[in-house]
Predict the structure.
Amino acid sequence: MKYISIETSCDETSVAIFEDNNLIKHYVYSQIETHKKWGGVVPEVASREHSEKIAHLLKKLGIKKLDLVGFTRGPGLKGSLLVGKVSAFVLSEFFKCPIMGLNHLEGHFLSPELVRNKIVNKIKFPCIGLLVSGGHTELWYSRGYGNYKVIGKTRDDACGEAFDKVAKILGLGYPGGPIIDKMSKLIKEDPKIFTVPEVKNSFDYSFSGIKTQVAYYVRDLKKITRKDKLRIIKSFQSSVVESLLNKLDLAVRKFGVKNIVVSGGVSANSFLREKLFERFKDFNIFLPELKYCGDNAAMMGVCMYRRIENGIYDGPTDVDDLLSGDMKNFKCI
Ligand code: KG4
Ligand code: ZN
């Protein structure tokens, strides 16, 4: 079976072509350089860039025959998603093949199953998934492919968004996550300036408070030195990681599972990875390869493969359905 996946939910235009469980070609065009000057993703600019790049990327795949086309239907930026949906619709008409709407977060969740350009049975179930990206922070309980329950989520900012905003406050550049990750290695101990964010009696997260703590701390400093910046990011990163892992800990104990998936852009964070293995020694931990942490079409191809394999095809049936970016066909237990 030959199939294509298209991912355009935010600021990466990405396409992939698979043959069965083999990833044949994969392209990711990142718009980071474009959005850098605004310090964040500008939705209208993002959708324009997707529409300028997508045809070029699809052409590079050199499609001769197609059995199925999949696209990210949500969640994401409406205008950006639309570019992927329309492209998928055109391909399905042209190649007379079925179309499948996919959930972006399921793509992140399944991304650890891409190993050296192959889809492998890697994730063990039941498991708890910690999905950490620029747009989302969620905890999932999963009993198998296509069987997911959201047990906790952020009540305000996503975790990656907090990294980006803190970097912006400190004038470090965009995106903030990788910069903070790298810079915080330059200082050894955590100066414990900020408290660990916690939403009591829940699996939910909250990161807007720590972002405000950082803003006030910076405001109260007369002059900010490089050393101050290093202390701030070290403490910020440690508190955020501890907060993420505290709820993960609570979840694995409550649901009695031994398997953990951590994925999404922030799962590339080296301090998070280090603490994860330190704290969950007796668990099976599944992480994506670094190149599959951020948004990409290959992870969406994994969703397609698992859905076909498990008979959970739920693609849209008409154009109206195609144009709705919600999660109505997203199977939850
Ligand atoms: O999954 P992703 O590419 O896009 C969304 O679906 O949102 O995640 C992007 C986010 C950005 O906020 C970025 O700063 C963050 O992931 N990120 C990191 C690291 N690499 C990317 N955060 C912390 N440490 C990193 N190494
Ligand atoms: Zn994402």
Observations:
- Confidence is low (pLDDT under 50) at residues 315-333.
- The chain is about 40% helix and 20% strand.
- The first helix runs from residue 32 to 36.
- The longest strand covers residues 22-30.
